[in-house]
Amino acid sequence: MFLKRISLLRENIERFDQYPFNIPSITSLEHLDLTSDVTFLVGENGSGKSTLLEAVAEKCGFNLAGGSRNNTYDVHAVHSDLGEQIRLSWMPKITNGFFMRAESFYQFATHLDDLKADGARGAYDAYGGRSLHEQSHGESFLSLFLNRFNGRAIYLLDEPEAALSPQRQLTFLRILHDLTTNEGCQFIIATHSPILLGYPDALILNFDAGQIEEIKYEMTDHYQITRYFLENRERFLKDLLEE
Ligand SMILES: Nc1ncnc2c1ncn2[C@@H]1O[C@H](COP(=O)(O)OP(=O)(O)OP(=O)(O)O)[C@@H](O)[C@H]1O
What topology does it adopt in the membrane (predicted)? Predict the structure, then answer.
């Protein structure tokens, strides 16, 4: 583990009534202690998970559209205001890593194609040897995890399950296990997947209820709603659709 604490520099913030400081989970933030190699960020849509993950990525110097320190290319999202107002406490400090956001992965794939077109011979080496655009969405995600990710690095992933079938989500759990156990990697992952969240001994931080606090797997909405749905599908749908 490398990143131990994320602190909000509250004394520097003049106004808490505008984005991103007006998001309840951020307004109330003092600091977060990361106590596991794998931290999950969970919460309703719009609760602030991506905003925090982006801020950490900015502070790490990673490209906010996706990538590492070495991936410089222009896209819409290039700056995080929150990133300027947080402190990251490392032990030890590392600079290797990658920020992956499902929603802009297409642009990242295009960026690699552009590098290749400009003559960068090894452009695809770390991504399975061929353009990510020539792989299915899910295949390209797994190529990234399998080929690009390795030791002494921090990986920030925003909804990595987006393109993965349930079976491939299990494959991802195996990759996560290998990278944390054998390579010492650290992960912070925003997710809505009850499968990913089941990873053993992970720290789960819940963004609902106006503050960011640890929650047990079985207490998450993701677990409870999915379980209830699967066990009571007919009644659940009857209530939902006939209301
Ligand atoms: N650039 C922006 N300007 C103003 N408000 C924004 C901006 N980006 C996001 N927001 C708002 O900030 C809040 C948190 O957004 P964020 O993307 O962090 O949520 P999230 O928890 O990652 O949601 P999801 O699960 O849907 O990805 C939302 O209410 C959103 O509308």
Answer: Peripheral membrane protein
Query: Chain centroid to CA 200: how far?
Result: 17
Which residues contact ligand 1 via a Cβ below 6 A? 19, 23, 43, 45-51, 190
- Give the distance (Å) from ligand 1 centre to CA of residue 243: 30
ipTM of the complex: 0.96
Say if residue 90 is exposed, middle or buried (CB neighbours under 10 Å; 0-12, 13-18, 19+): middle
What CATH architecture does domain 3-216 belong to?
Answer: 3-Layer(aba) Sandwich (3.40)
> Distance of alpha carbon 141 from its chain centroid, rounded?
13
Q: Over the stretch 45-80, which tens digit does the pLDDT of each residue have?
A: 999 999 999 999 999 999 887 777 777 666 555 688
Grouping H, G, I as helix, E, B as strand and the rest as coil, residue 50 is helix
Please give the residue that has the higher pLDDT: either 118 or 156: 156
Assign 134 to helix, strand or coil. helix
CA of 138 to the centre of ligand 1 (A): 24
H or E element: which one contains 234?
Answer: helix 233-242
Atom 18 in ligand 1: residue holding the nearest Cα:
48
Pairing of strands 97-101, 154-158: parallel
Q: Computed over its alpha carbons, how large is the radius of gyration of the chain? A: 19
